[in-house]
Design a protein that fits this description.
Blueprint: H1 2-7, H2 14-20, H3 38-44, H4 46-55, H5 60-63, H6 69-76, H7 82-105, H8 114-129, E1 151-160, E2 165-173, E3 179-187, H9 193-211, E4 215-219, H10 223-230, H11 240-249, E5 254-258
Parallel strand pairs: 1-4, 4-5
Antiparallel strand pairs: 1-2, 2-3
The structure holds zinc ion.
């Protein structure tokens, strides 16, 4: 989510907030010298620069050429390995966290420990994924690519019953596993987890129609919703209107649903 917000330029920096909230000043609260843009907060502020120097990641040239994360990553993806890109994101996230800890909690801004922390953080995550620390029955969860000329949409949704809030995300990949689109939706008046998942699938279908994708696979763990969509009978569920709308789009997209 952090990376996504960086890409969409919606990280709540002062510069970003000042556009929407009149009394907020765009200046950086740490150095008071420049506007706090994403690039300033994560890379160009004096303390962030020290962190990147300590990281030894060779990004200085690229940083001097671009002014947003999209362009920076576009340049770096051919230069850095996947592991280095991963380290870059974790460091950026930690810099953001450290800056906020200074601004909102008055904690000191230390740069010395950030890179070692990020390295151990990644090792811990990798250890968890490989089962080194998770000894309970881990469920094998392997992504399988779609057939050629087919796009695969993987969904997951979440629902808070007490707040009536729902959210869902989708990742769209091609046969090589390349991510074409990643998107998330927030539903402030969600009825239940099923309608949340159904709405997400509908939005994915509409996305496919707009993009001109002729053949898609929709993969979701919402078996109940998938069965409603696959049924030949009209849906009588509380989210039946959404199911019927999804069905109405199938003439435009060859859609294969699976759980
Ligand atoms: Zn600053």
């Amino acid at each position: 989510m952090f990376a996504w917000r960086c890409y969409k330029d919606t990280l709540p920096t002062n510069k970003c907030l000042a556009i929407r909230i009149p009394h907020i000043h765009p200046i950086c609260a740490i150095c008071s010298r420049e506007d706090e843009t994403i690039m300033h907060a994560l890379f160009h502020s004096s303390w962030a620069s020290k962190v990147w120097d300590a990281s030894k990641l060779p990004i200085a040239n690229e940083l001097s050429l671009v002014n947003n994360m999209v362009n920076l990553l576009e340049l770096l993806r051919f230069k850095l390995t996947v592991d280095k890109i991963r380290l870059l994101w974790v460091i950026a996230w930690r810099i953001w966290y450290g800056g906020n800890a200074f601004i909102f909690r008055g904690e000191d801004v230390y740069y010395q420990g950030i890179v070692p922390y990020c390295g151990s953080y990644i090792r811990e995550v990798d250890g968890s994924c490989s089962g080194e620390t998770l000894t309970s029955q881990a469920i094998p969860n392997v992504w399988h690519p779609p057939l050629s000329h087919t796009i695969k949409l993987n969904y997951d949704g979440a629902y808070s019953e007490c707040e009536g809030l729902g959210g869902a995300g989708v990742v769209v990949r091609n046969v090589r596993g390349l991510v074409l689109v990643a998107a998330s939706w927030f539903y402030p008046y969600a009825m239940d987890p099923y309608s949340t998942e159904a709405l997400a699938i509908l939005l994915g279908m509409e996305l496919a129609v707009r993009q001109g994708w002729k053949s898609i696979v929709i993969e979701s763990d919402a078996e109940t919703v998938i069965n409603e969509i696959l049924s030949n009978s009209p849906s009588l569920s509380s989210y039946g209107n959404v199911v019927e709308k999804i069905k109405s789009l199938t003439p435009f997209v060859d859609c294969h649903l699976c759980v």
